Amino acid sequence: MWVAPALFISLKRCTLMRSFAREEIGPIVVVSLISALRLLGIFLMLPIFSAYAVNYPGASAALAGVAFGIYALTQCIFQIPLGWASDRWGRKPVLIFGLALFAIGSIGCAWAKDIHGLILARALQGTGAVGSVAFAALADLTRPSVRTQAYTITGI
User: Fold this and answer.
1) Which domain holds residue 26?
2) By CB neighbour count within 10 A (0-12 exposed, 13-18 middle, 19+ buried), where does 38 fall?
């Protein structure tokens, strides 16, 4: 079972969640969390990133922009290769690999000593943002009749 019983009971009371089978709720919650992590990697830092990044040694406004944008760029570049990898080796190993890269990139952002280290760490974060693989896993684990509802819930 993917989800704790108390969470399952509270989700089961929700009208929208009643259409899902018990084994579909866990993957919906997990993919929702992965999707939230992926989006937080961009939008949580948006208000303060440029003011913070220019304080690194060797930083400029242009390099701060690169450090911010490299996340989205690498995320876009690696969605298709990671999708192919998940088709070949399975969704779970690629999700774990991607989340590990995301975690390493996040730790690297916290420990970055200069702007170039921050850029590298943000690139790792973007590479590990495995949104397409997470949504493919959700498609594999839900019935076609409720798949659009599952995608709606994970996008909220």
Assistant:
1) 5-155
2) buried
Whole-prediction pTM: 0.80
Distance CA 118, CA 97 (A): 21
Element at 24 (helix H, strand E): helix 22-43
**Cβ count within 10 A of residue 34:** 23
Best-predicted range by mean pLDDT (9-13, 58-62, 89-93, 134-138)? 89-93
Amino acid letter, residue 83: G
- Whichever domain contains 146, its CATH number is 1.20.1250.20
How far apart are the C-alpha atoms of 126 and 143, rounded to whole Å? 30
Token pair 């409720």 is found at 146
Please count the structural domains in the chain.
1
Query: Is-contact 126 75, C-beta < 8 A?
Result: yes
Identity of the residue numbered 138: L
